[in-house]
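Design request, tokens follow.
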């Protein structure tokens, strides 16, 4: 692993570097939290784990740990702490540290902590072996407010990016399809803001959306977001409690030119998904994306 050691004691840091190097780990050293942050933030993808002391000058381990997590980095952090610093250790764990080891520590204790971290990150080969056995289902019922659209899409992308990467699928394209479908459900379905208003004035359109998000008769309607993930496919169902629409008015799947500004979302959904269907009343959309390993063009 590539490990960043943040430690102000030169003797301790030298000892750690020698030992970890003998265990085939690559080590970089920083003398305090600020130096550690400068080194880490310059290339966060370069580090698999961080070992950090708590009591250091300039920036201590607590501030360093907080800075890493506040910037949404999920690199595992192991705190090195003396027994007298137990209160600081608890705070560090609350701030996102994954584990801690007490000073003076045995090297076996350190290696156990690092082994735990390695076990949490599946190599690509092992990920490929486990993927055919996975399933996941989740359902959300959210009020009709546009903020939930991006929360739901972020949730999906965060949890299934590895699967998309494995199948060489663009997770952002799936995310965009979900945004378009959820937008239709929230704004056009439950809030009943007609998409044709965008062609008249974006300002009027956005103002009406904001107004109706505050009106209980519209905003209290719920949107159901359900997904079913298997080894074969992603399946999404999005349902609103609006009046629906006449699905016979939808243009043909490849007829982009007949679509008004309001129809580009449906075109994008159909472009990125393998199957797209609606129920008879038009207030439920079902989208399927099949998981396939792309064929090697040179095979």
């Amino acid at each position: 692993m590539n490990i960043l050691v943040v430690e102000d004691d030169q003797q301790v840091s030298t000892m750690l570097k020698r030992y970890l190097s003998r265990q085939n780990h690559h080590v970089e050293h920083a003398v305090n939290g600020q130096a550690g942050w400068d080194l880490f933030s310059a290339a966060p993808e370069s580090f698999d784990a961080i070992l950090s002391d708590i009591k250091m000058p300039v920036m201590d381990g607590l501030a360093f740990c907080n800075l890493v997590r506040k910037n949404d980095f999920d690199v595992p952090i192991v705190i090195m702490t003396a027994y007298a610093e137990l209160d600081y250790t608890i705070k560090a764990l609350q701030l996102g540290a994954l584990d801690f080891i007490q000073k003076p520590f045995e090297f076996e204790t350190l290696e156990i902590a690092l082994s735990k971290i390695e076990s949490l990150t599946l190599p690509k080969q092992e990920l490929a072996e486990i993927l055919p056995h996975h399933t996941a289902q989740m359902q959300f019922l959210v009020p009709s407010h546009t903020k939930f659209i991006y929360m739901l899409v972020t949730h999906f992308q965060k949890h299934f990016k590895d699967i998309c990467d494995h199948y060489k699928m663009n997770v952002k394209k799936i995310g965009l399809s979900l945004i378009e479908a959820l937008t239709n459900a929230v704004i056009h379905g439950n809030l009943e803001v007609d998409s044709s208003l965008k062609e008249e004035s974006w300002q009027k359109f956005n103002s009406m959306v904001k107004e109706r998000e505050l009106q209980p008769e519209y905003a209290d309607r719920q949107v159901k977001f359900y997904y079913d993930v298997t080894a074969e496919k992603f399946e999404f169902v999005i349902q609103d409690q609006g009046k629906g629409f006449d699905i016979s008015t939808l243009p043909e799947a490849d007829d982009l030119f007949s679509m008004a500004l309001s129809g580009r979302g449906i075109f994008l959904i159909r472009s990125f998904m393998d199957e797209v269907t609606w129920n008879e009343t038009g207030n439920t959309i079902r989208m399927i994306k099949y998981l396939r390993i792309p064929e090697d063009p040179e095979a």
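Comment from the thread starter after seeing the answer: thanks! The mean pLDDT is 87.
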